[in-house]
Amino acid sequence: MTLDITQVYSQIEAMAGDIKSRRADYVRRLDVALNTLKTAGSAQDKLKKKIDRARTTWLVAGLREPIGLKQPAAKCPDDYAVVASDGSQIDVDRHHSVRLFLLNIGLVCLQYGSRPEAEFTTLPTLYSDEERLFIRSDDGKQAQIEGPLLGLKRDIEECRCLADRVCAMPAAMPVVGLIDGTLIKWKLAGQRYEDFVVKHLLDEGLLKQLDRFQVLSREKKAAVASYISFPGSADVVNALRLHLCPYEPVDCDKYCAGKFEGRACDAVGGLADRDIFRRLLSDGERSAVFCSNSSIIKRYGSHKVCFFYLRLDDEVARVEAPLWVADSSELLETVHALVAEQCRKGFGYPVALSEAHEQAVVSGADRAQFWDVVERVMLEGNLETGSSLKQRSKKIRWI
Amino acid sequence: MDLGKQFAEVIETSNSEFLAQCYELDGVPALGSLVKTRSRDCEIYALVYASGTHSIEPGRRIVARGQGATSPADVFKANPQLAKLLCSDFRALVVGHDRGGVMRQYLPPSPAGIYAFVYSCKPEEVRIFTGSLDFLSLLIDSRLPVATDEVIAAFLRLASLTHQAPQEFLIKAGQGLAWLLSNDIRRLDSILKRLRI
Q: pTM of the full predicted structure?
């Protein structure tokens, strides 16, 4: 039996009713947030100090520009390029006797101006040897690359392919490399992964690739940024919460332990940053640049992640870039202009990222064909091709 | 085989027709053009009866992008990816084949090869091919998903221009059609009306 939608229907109706009843509350909170943004803006230095000294349980945006800034996009250069990468994967399947995973990276280079050109590339790579299926430490520890770890590995490969292509671009042409999703690898924070895993994926992985972009940016107008559509983050809202907090220095555990409502800061609680900037910004405008205070960012050095919100036709996106991009007004302006123009061409989403996704996507049919080919080649080589009985029962749906 | 311009490739094939994808966007030949390709044992001649430009992926719909642009070329300039995402193709009805230097105006023993290159026919080849009008019965009897009479008329109009006396060629073709369509005067009349150059 599949999902019985008739049974769920009444629950969906109840949910919609609940959301509707909270609508007035949402509008009230949003009004408070926008007013708070104004007052916080006129006391920005004070808020900055408050943020620096605060001990909170949530992520608070670091302030770099006036918090209520609204910046229109500059004009795009006459000739420029946007390179984007995206990826998908076939994960290790423990129901198959062969241990492997596959990464499929889609790479798109779009050149605009006097010589418009498009280049689409798909780079599938199979990982099946022990050396590449595990991350290993010098002292004999190992972590198998699968599940969430494979997602992180994919992010790094996307960034590596992007850096390769951006490095090969002509020097005279301004170029922005675009990645889908966040640059903040917060999953690597905390105790979840051992340090050798973090070192491999972050220090020797993502950050090494960002180094390549930074070196390149010294030779030509080249930047890297990542794009998050419909972001759920609330770093700026949390900064407003600090502004509303009556305690100095702010210390959530000390003054408000166990409280989830009724606090002064709850007047703007439950909002996302996108809610505020959707009301504040006009089409194509960016917000102030903020910096992330995620704990993993401490490892990022000069690549400390900064971000701004970008108002597009009907939504607000979050654009992240390393500190060295945010520090250069020229690169920041280029990223803003090019990403806004990409969204305009792509009906609200960067066209280069959209096409990179199309190149990378591995459909259910592709997956089935991949495993069929693996089994056929194994059989031709007289190698064992066993799969689990559970896997077989999924293929042959008997009654 | 005297090759004309190689401009497309066969991507779907059968004994009676083939589908070919053009190398250039909008590079489809005119309706009724004679084109040629190869099977494993002969050269195949075919008539273009349908053509178009569409998304490479069936699931991706083309949307309007030209608001504010001054020409369709501007749309391509501002969106260079489009040339990679769209393709032009055409369907051609097989009307004859050349085996060992002998032209035969009936279906070949084997279909055009998949990925076989497609060439345009030079005016001289069209003139030689239409030296005989035996292929007209193939055309008259074919059941195409487009108006067959339009294709026949388009082909004869184009072919007439390769002859020294186009009008005489069209009169001869009209006589051939009159014999084949002696029991369908309405259809004959419809085609003849479309033969005016």
A: 0.86
